[in-house]
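Example protein was shown:

_____
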Amino acid sequence: MSSEAGTMEAEKVLKLKEKLSECRLLRKQLLKERELWRIKERKIKELQEELRVEIEANSRATSEFEEKKKTLKEALQAKRQSVRQVKKALDEFNANRDREFAYKGAQIANASGRFDRLHAELGKKINWSEAEAERDYLDKLQSEIDEKWDNLIAFLETCRKNSKITDDVKPCLRVHYDAYIKTLKSMGGSK
């Protein structure tokens, strides 16, 4: 029996050695797997860092885009407001121009009527040298009125054709127009 016990003991030792060998093999595999997990963990951290950097860059780009979008929206609003102001100013200018045109037309018709009356009175005068001087004055006045009338018509036609009068040009036009009106008024009162 001792031989049997020795054999059993040898089998037990052999099984334990096999088990030990399996455990060592399993330990090697676990160590390799642990090392693989460490590598994977490092890769995950690197990927997380890359992702964080990418998210920050994306966030900055989105913020810049939103800022540009906001700026462009504000610029568009300003342009629209500017267009509305120019349209309003142009409408006011056209309304004023039409009123001034009617007013100046009446003034010119009145001056023309005065000219005709003065011309008729001259015909009745006996002193022909005075009549000649008056007629020369009236002819000069009539030619100035005709020239101013032509200038006014040309000015108004130019204004109608040029519908893109800007705020920068309006004061200049107003100055010239006022000078023209002043000239007409002074000519009407120069007699």
Q: What stands out?
A: The chain has a mean pLDDT of 80. The first helix runs from residue 2 to 124.
